[in-house]
Structure of DNA 3'-5' helicase:
Amino acid sequence: MAARPMPYLNELNPAQREAVERLDGPVLMLAGAGTGKTKALTARIVHLLNTGRAKPNEILAVTFTNKAAREMKNRVGGMLGHAVEGVPWLGTFHAICVKLLRRHAELVNLKSNFTILDMDDQNRLLKQLIVANGIDEKRWPARLLSSLIDGWKNKALTPQKLPAGDAGAFNHRGGELYDQYQQRLRELNAVDFGDLLLHMVTIFQEHPDVLAQYQRWFRYILVDEYQDTNVAQYLWLRLLAGGHKNICCVGDDDQSIYGWRGAEVGNILRFEKDFPGAHVVRLEQNYRSTPHILAAASNVIRGNADRLGKTLWTETEEGEKVRLIGHWDGEEEARWIGEEIEAMQSGTRGLRAMSLNEMAILVRASHQMRAFEDRFLTIGLPYRVIGGPRFYERLEIRDAMAYFRLVVSPEDDLAFERIVNTPKRGLGNVAQQKIQTCARSNGVSLVEGARILLEEKGLGGKGAKELALLLENLARWRGNLIGPQTTLPDDDAVLDDGPDLASPVFDELGGRPTPNAGVAAVGHIELAEIILDESGYTTMWQNDKTPEGPGRLDNLKELVKALENFDNLQGFLEHVSLIMDNESDDAEAKVTIMTLHGAKGLEFPAVFLPGWEDGLFPSQRSMDESGLKGLEEERRLAYVGITRAEEICTISFAGNRQVYGQWQSQMPSRFIDELPEDHVDILTPPGLYGGGFGAASRPTATALDERVANANTYNSPGWKRMQARAGERGMSQPRESKSSVIDASAVSSFTVGDRVFHQKFGYGAILKIEGDKLEVAFEKAGTKNVVASYVTGSDD
Ligand code: ATP
Ligand code: MG
């Protein structure tokens, strides 16, 4: 074949070229963020095609997300300089395995048109099995079983291969139930997500002829983000590459962030053992980020003990230092970021003007997104949420909203259908059918139909009782809604000034400003909480033992919190329907909001990293865990976050945040301490120095720690000093009201035995209360006397 031009090789550095041109045998590209691993991998595909080594369908290329697969496909076309008929086996593990499994379904007793169950289906099926086995589903919830089964599937463990220890999980019935579940799936001609890989591994292991066929077929194998493969994926790859060993894996041990989902960073470290004679390429030049950003990321990741260690350097221009800013609370943080984005868009920060498409907000926990979504909607800033539904589209939020809608308008039949049996009230399909029929024959709403049905005794048993209770509740909640809500102050008053502590409208129960508490029996915020509690909806998620449970509860708290910005439930519901209507037009430039996990492999000129606070990032779970494993994974996530930024990286934290509905003082993340001072600029929150981020408004140089402490804790000595300083200079005083709320709620709501959090001493239980003094047995610091206003409640 005549040699074709290879312009794509000229875009690579020598190390990358080496990885691209060494086509035969195992190659491992192990390198830090932004060093062009993905670029080299893409060039390798192009080179395989261009040199005629492989036809498009002889290349198996695995990416981490569908989005990454699409991008890689486009780039291959672009680099080749002529259209390819596609690289059919370029995709995620799951996408590739679906295709393969359809061809060989019969080998695992399925038909090729099998269906793929989603999480909801999966849980429903497991629930049926649990009940059929006479197990108490309340104590042993389906969601717990489903996460166990997912974990086993990630490890490529079939029911037959399950070690005795695992089989004994779930009240000694785990193994048995797993087996029944797999049988049931076969009867239904269905698979779940984990099965896609598990079945393929089983097929390859049990049918050497099939494996051999694919070993010949896929002549070249390429894998991106190898550090995040789980055992099943690893086995699958190793089986496929077992013949020719033409496998090229790229990854970065510092970016392994899916340990919690069964990924094994060991897979990348073991590569040279698995494939003796593997050629290892290390890339050190980073092409993505400025030196400051790179230095910050490198310094943070240095805190991890368990790593290979890599050097990174860059020739990019010096650019801006990493920007760090502390805010009053989470809402303030969202407001500031919104303003900052608008300023950057118009180029008024002394930086080049940027398109919204060039900016991203990367959050640690999805519940953080709500504040941004609300704020951006208010100021009309276009945004898109990637990976996972937008806040108001989440299951638990939709359920909760359905309750609110039904209270506001009892004719909302869709809302009624959604919640009538959520949580379970013994009102299954038959009962719901009866309600429908009754409503239709009387020409009334479902709520009214249900009432008539009960009156006519058309429904019996537990269902009838529960339905009566639900109707009664709905009526009562609705009664509470019709209070003198119109006497509320306007939004701004609620938002900006906070409640006046001395005023009787401060609500002791909730410890939260409820401006109409003095005039209405129940404010709309309490009403929302009452609805969620009395309906059993909150309890339903509290009893949920899966990893998602706590997140869903967080989201519900966030939802209640969002109500603070509105006069009443009606106004809130209108706001949300607006959000839902605001559906995306992808031609328009938008800010991206996504989780840090979802941002792996991506890059943006400007990145905002909000919520760098202990307990949020790193997560409380990782901090509570014994050992450093969880914390190290969080640190890698911080490294991933910082290294997404090309030009501007802004890290922020809030001094106060509502966690589980309670205001808590937050400590800046320990990762902030690990940022190198020389590469960081501390910005000042506008409330303190009257706005603006010019050099003149920056505090004079003190140790990074102290500056951060000053900016942060509003009731810390640092904060008091800062107040004093601001006062001396005649600058605007920080708002005090909300911090008083924290203190007051703390005093009024504590009882002996409560679990509390103190900034210095950590978690503890209250032993004695004397006026505003508490004796607390701290878990780490021992028993101490502290002032009540220095601790916050914790239901962690
Ligand atoms: P991550 O670890 O975050 O996935 P990566 O190692 O895969 O990063 P790439 O995304 O491939 O890095 O590349 C980072 C950026 O550097 C991209 O914008 C890419 O186009 C650019 N780049 C990579 N190699 C070169 C090169 N040799 N010359 C110029 N730019 C390059
Ligand atoms: Mg990459």
User: Anything to note?
Assistant: Confidence is low (pLDDT under 50) at residues 483-520, 688-748. The radius of gyration is 29 Å.
